[in-house]
Design a protein that fits this description.
The protein has about 325 residues and is an alpha/beta fold. It folds into 2 domains: about 5-240, P-loop containing nucleotide triphosphate hydrolases (Rossmann fold, 3-Layer(aba) Sandwich), CATH 3.40.50; about 245-305, Alpha-Beta Plaits (2-Layer Sandwich). Helix content is about 35%, strand content about 30%. The chain has 11 helices and 15 strands. Strands 7-8-9-5-10-11 form a 6-stranded mixed beta sheet, sandwiched between helices. A 4-stranded antiparallel beta sheet has the order 13-14-12-15. Helix 9 (about 260-265) runs antiparallel to helix 10. The longest helix is centred in the middle third of the chain and has 16 residues, at about 185-200. The protein is elongated, with a radius of gyration of 25 Å. About 30% of the residues are buried.
């Protein structure tokens, strides 16, 4: 029987109405309830890195809070690492790491090393293991250069790196990263991606919520798209790349089969059509067939296939495109 680090079935959450208070008595009244999640089911196995994406208000943070045990779903089953996150939170939280954007785990008036020492005690980490992890974290995020400084004197990017170190100090099996790249420079983002990929190689699971397309594309093996609290897409990144459009730029000096050439422009998205130079957008999995047909239709003097733009792919997923919808296979 397969095991999963995260299993949810038909999880729903509604934020209940509360009485709103305003200066104007005529405008006070009961606020409408908001459906944040609607029957969301997930199966995420050990070693997977899953990107959770969607527009603001799509339910991403609510889902992460349920998976972390911070809030309780109204209905549905949740099991993470063999625990019910809400009911067994005390035992469960020792097995996970969490980064929530700009919410810091660090003590502002203490040096970073003191906060890390505190979490060493909290997670019951031996001194030798702690020293090894600090060395690993320094290799990932370069924390030793500011580990002696009070947190309040750190730059925003340094504080984010310190928070990442504190969250994963105990090398947890399951990590939730909610906008972890805010404030990180390009090199730090690359290091974070490398760390996430190493976790995956070691069979550890990561849930990444981010608007950083480069981080998503370099780290995730799978993307889940939420829209209005509903899971719209759950697909492997490689499958999504095959479904995305790539540009074929070509120039020609002789038309052999005008009907076939016209058919190619009709069947595919035409970005540009000139007398001698044109650009077609085709699906990644049909590039080879399209080029073969182009060679039959005309004499090519120039041909360039531009790879799929991951930014365009993610934008298409978030904004909604029925051709890419569906569950992972």
């Amino acid at each position: 029987m397969p095991t999963f680090d995260i299993f949810t079935e038909n999880v729903s959450k509604t934020y209940r109405a509360r009485w709103g208070i305003t200066i104007d008595k005529n405008k006070s009244g009961k606020r409408p309830a908001k459906l944040a999640l609607d029957n969301v089911s997930l199966l995420i196995g050990p070693g997977e890195t899953v990107g959770l994406i969607g527009l603001n208000g799509s339910g991403k943070s609510t889902l992460v809070k349920i998976l972390c045990g911070i809030i309780k779903p109204d209905q549905g089953e949740v099991n993470c690492l063999g625990y019910n996150p809400f009911r067994q939170r005390r035992e469960y939280v020792n097995k996970i790491g969490v980064v929530f954007g700009q919410k810091s785990l660090l003590y502002m008036d203490l040096p970073l090393k003191d906060s890390l020492e505190l979490y060493r005690v909290v997670y019951d980490i031996s001194r030798d293991e702690f020293n090894r992890e600090i060395e690993n974290l320094d290799n990932c995020f370069g924390i030793n250069e500011f580990i002696e400084q009070p947190v309040r004197k750190l730059s925003f990017g340094q504080r984010v790196r310190g928070d990442l170190a504190a969250s994963i100090l105990h090398n947890p099996q399951l990590v939730f990263l909610d906008e972890p790249s805010i404030g990180l420079d390009i090199l730090a983002c690359d290091k974070l991606s490398q760390y996430i990929n190493r976790r995956s190689e070691n069979g550890k699971t990561t849930i990444l919520v981010s608007h950083n397309v480069d981080l998503l594309s370099s780290s995730c093996s799978r993307l889940i798209v939420l829209e209005g609290g509903v899971k719209r897409i759950d697909r492997a990144v490689e499958w999504l790349k095959l479904q995305s459009l790539v540009d074929i730029e070509f120039a020609f000096n002789n038309v052999r089969d005008a009907k076939l050439l016209d058919l190619l422009f009709t069947e595919n998205k035409c970005k540009e059509r000139g007398e001698l130079f044109s650009v077609l957008s085709v699906r990644s999995d049909s590039v080879e067939a399209t080029v073969d047909r182009l060679q039959k239709a005309c004499s090519l003097v120039y041909l360039q296939v531009k790879p799929a733009d991951i930014r365009d792919m993610v934008s298409t997923l978030i904004l909604g495109n029925g051709s890419m919808s569906g569950e992972s296979k």
